[in-house]
Amino acid sequence: MIKWGIIGCGRIAHRFMEGLNAVPDVCLTAVWSRRPATVKKFTGRYGGTACNTLEELLASNVDVVYIATLPDSHAAYSIIALNAGKHVLCEKPATLNLEELEKVLAVAKKNRLLFMEGMKPPFYPLYNKLHQHILDDPIGSVGYVRAGSSVADISHDHPNYSYKLAGGSLMGIGIYEAFLAIDWLGCTHEVQAMGRFGDTGIDMFSIFQTSHENGYAQLYCGLDLHGKGDALICGTLGHITIHKNWWNPAKATINYLDGHIVELDEPFTAGGLNYEITHFCELIRTGQTESNIVSHEMSKQMIAMIDEARKIIGLKFTGE
Q1: In angstroms, rounded to a whole number, what is the distance separating the alpha carbons of residues 140 and 236?
Q2: Residues with pLDDT less than 70, the chain
Q3: Residue 194: domain span
Q4: Which Pfam families does the protein's record reference (predicted)?
């Protein structure tokens, strides 16, 4: 039985619990948040001990800590948990910037513990089936990715609107697009970006195009336009459309140059986070300190791309 602790009780923590409850041989053991009332409400719903302090959670017998806070505190909580001897699954983006991530990874290495960024798309059944299908029925050399999402339906009091908490479209949504581009096209060589800022000081809408080892990507992310988009992946022998919402992939269409079309349909269960949780637990059980799917190098490349895009549009957070 792998015992989980959670730091933070926001919306993503509730979705995480939907996933955790669908995974065998795990349990929620302890929860802490800066707001005690939310902790008691959370544990009243899902179980586990409501901790009064972070130290209480870390002194408990949890094996792993899931960090469900906003990016401003990811690095600090990751380092504290790793130094307390706990494995860490941290919500995306793993840290505020590459400099912070390198510090976290150094602590994980020193303590010989597992650290993984919670980048969910590659663990979904559809995404795995898609990769397997194109091994058997290739679309040739992939050279272009276009993807994006803009979510105008979230409340303006959502933490993504907070400059203090390192919100914004690049940090909250663009990191998904960074993953997709790197996963299909390889290392990033160049980033170009434009962004539009809102009243709170964060980017409300950003577009960035990138050159990679194997091609080019055009990407967008936003908080005030309605555009929950698909993803287009183009190769020399065909193209793939991962239908909206592509970051929670369930359906894809592959159109081949010779005219044949393949439809893939793989519904997901339990909100989708159960797949990354299952992977993370297997890494613990086999004594691994790094995921082979969301590797440390992948996390570094993703946040480096977002760092560069933020630099270009002029978005710098407190403390940077």
Answers
A1: 5
A2: none
A3: 121-269+302-313
A4: GFO_IDH_MocA (PF01408)
